[in-house]
Amino acid sequence: xxxxxxxxxxxxxxxxxxxxxxxxxxxxxxxxxxxxxxxxxxxxxxxxxxxxxxxxxxxxxxxxxxxxxxxxxxxxxxxxxxxxxxxxxxxxxxxxxxxxxxxxxxxxxxxxxxxxxxxxxxxxxxxxxxxxxxxxxxxxxxxxxxxxxxxxxxxxxxxxxxxxxxxx
Length: 168
Known about the structure:
About 25% of the residues lie in helices and about 25% in strands. It has helices at about 15-30, 65-80, 120-130, 145-150; strands spanning about 1-10, 30-35, 40, 55-60, 95-100, 105, 110-115, 155-160. A hairpin with a 4-residue loop joins strand 6 and strand 7 (about 110-115).
């Protein structure tokens, strides 16, 4: 078993419902959802879409290897209506990313863990710092709390809904 930290987000349709559905799918298909951050609303990063994203960090205990987890996440995204389009960032109903997978590092054309841009994205760090402020990034050797304090991202991130319990 491994502990993975995921980031869920989306800015289309009923954003909160898509997060809840994604978390339910995680619990039924990928492992045990241990903890959830609060839900945050954030300005779109890397795009000009006017609709803000909802984002939530998830702590997941999983028996899946990192690539099997990636496959499962992409299957879940597809089942919720996500369509992938090549070239840049786009609005989406749901995005499910592996941010950390234990203390493992992966660097392949298909997947990089820790997520290569996590230290530059406040919408990732703020929810993640609720769950694991003292966890050390396996490459940068700084804690999530330190990364949050040093994050250069100035896009707004605001509390949308307080912490919710994982569905059992």
